[in-house]
Amino acid sequence: MKYQNPVITGCYPDPSICRVGDDYYVVNSSFEFFPGVPVWHSRDLVHWEQIGHCITRNSQLKLIKGRMNNSGIYAPTIRYHEGIFYMVVTNVANGEEGTGNFYVWTKDPAGEWSEPVFLNTEGIDPSIFFDDDGRAYYTGTSSAGIYLREIDFKNGKLVGEAVTLWAGTGGAYPEGPHLYKRNGWYYLMISEGGTERCHMLTMARSKNLTGPYEGCLDNPVMTNRSLGLPIQSVGHADLVEDGNGNWWAVCLGTRTFGYPHKHNLGRETMLVPVDWSGEWPVFGDNGRVLEEFETELLPKQCCPESASNDSYFDDFSSSKPDMGWNCIYNPDASLYEQTESGLCLHGNEKWLKDADTLAWVGRRQRHHVSCTVVTLEFPCRQEGEEAGLTIFMNNRHHYEAALYRDNTGRKLIFRRQIGSLEKVECTLDYESDGVKLKLESDLDEYRFSYQKADGEWEELGCGEVQYLTTEVGGAFTGNYIGLYSCGNGTKCQTSAIFSNFSYEGK
Ligand code: 6LW
């Protein structure tokens, strides 16, 4: 059978995987977005369905504001041991209290996870390894390389001395470590070169847990660097052995376009067949990650119900919001309300360009070519009130169509914000209380339109995709399609009601 990469499209980087019987679970980074750490389930490794989040309560996570797409939740690891799932992760936040490395645990990965247990240790990209004798170990990054320390889950703390295991092959940023044991060897797998175009996966092994570790002579064992392949920047991988003894890796990669290469969907999750019949694993096509792999080895059971993430509709009638929706930073419940007419946003006094708590919900853009339509009711009366549909990399890079009230009346506007440049490029006088908005995307442009009274769509404006790419305006995340309301200086008196949201990816 042939399958296509990415297997999880959109901004779902730093995948980590574990298996329990026939069930596979993946978690990803979530940065400043909330809920944090999406949890996916699959039985065939190709079709993934989101079943929850590890972080769903403000008490579990304090997100700091202000740093665009490069703070918050980095690089989780998921492991299963004796009936319990553990997820260990970093909240990157300048060393503020209640941040750093922590783990949460659960017996049901689709349910609620525990309160955080902080580990008070340096670095990022934590991982957990259970040795055959049942002892558990933590690995993480330091300036000297990858270090190991025993972890005592009973008492929720690291114990003993830290030992540096390996500093990699000399590439920048040795990170993303995971340990595995096979045929009496401890294998340490890490990423080097940075998460951008030089990203690579390297390995070392030792007969002893604490080393010395010897690098694989074939390092890097996986990379697409300097190759003209459609998927770039592959790395940050995790391995899993299926029930038939075959090995697989999940890793991140980007689908780049244009020249110089750029990407706007963030780093996505790829599946790589691994041949570990020899001493060292061989990843994908001789160390390269392809868009399409042909393999007869996938676990047989398929999950057809989760086969399509290509289209999505929401009338916001469900009492629990769909898992694909996120807020930015910790949510303020007073800004959101579910009503019979749809999702109601109560805009606060902020601007959309503020790196702050907003009445904002967004879903990841998961396809380059896509079409989103949403209905908005917003009889704005107070000067400055605004609500609309935005394509959003971060607070400094976004385009939107919105209903807006200025000192002369209600307007329909199209605005672009590219760094510190901000321009309202179209302003139409607009009488009606409501509007249907459309956002279309391809590799070149984001196009916004609205539906006129006669049912025809009229374009409001468009903007280049390239200015909303990671390379131009972002850091670690991809674009979100957002619904928002803001008062631009004064708290909104008018509620914005969004309904009939549809997204179609091609
Ligand atoms: C993550 C690091 C990385 O912590 O990017 O690609 C960082 N790898 O390991 C943020 O995703």
Molecular structure report:
The chain has 506 residues and is an all-beta fold. Helix content is 1%, strand content 49%. It contains one helix and 38 strands. It has one helix spanning 470-473, and strands spanning 2-4, 16-20, 23-27, 33-34, 36-42, 49-55, 72-81, 84-92, 100-106, 117-118, 127-130, 136-142, 145-152, 157-166, 175-182, 185-192, 200-206, 214-215, 231-241, 247-255, 268-275, 282-283, 292-294, 311-314, 327-328, 336-339, 342-345, 359-364, 370-377, 386-394, 397-406, 409-418, 421-429, 434-441, 445-451, 457-464, 480-486, 496-505. Strands 24, 26, 27, 29, 34, 35, 36 and 38 form an eight-stranded antiparallel β-sheet that branches. The protein has a six-stranded antiparallel β-sheet with strand order 28-37-30-31-32-33, with no helix packed on it. A hairpin with a 6-residue loop joins strand 21 and strand 22 (282-283). The longest helix is centred in the last third of the chain and has 4 residues, at 470-473. Bound molecules: (Z)-L-Arabinonhydroximo-1,4-lactone (6LW). (Z)-L-Arabinonhydroximo-1,4-lactone binds at residues 13-14, 29, 74-75, 124-125, 175-176, 191, 195, 235-236, 252, 476. (Z)-L-Arabinonhydroximo-1,4-lactone is lined by residues 13-14, 29, 74-75, 124-125, 175-176, 191, 195, 235-236, 252, 476.
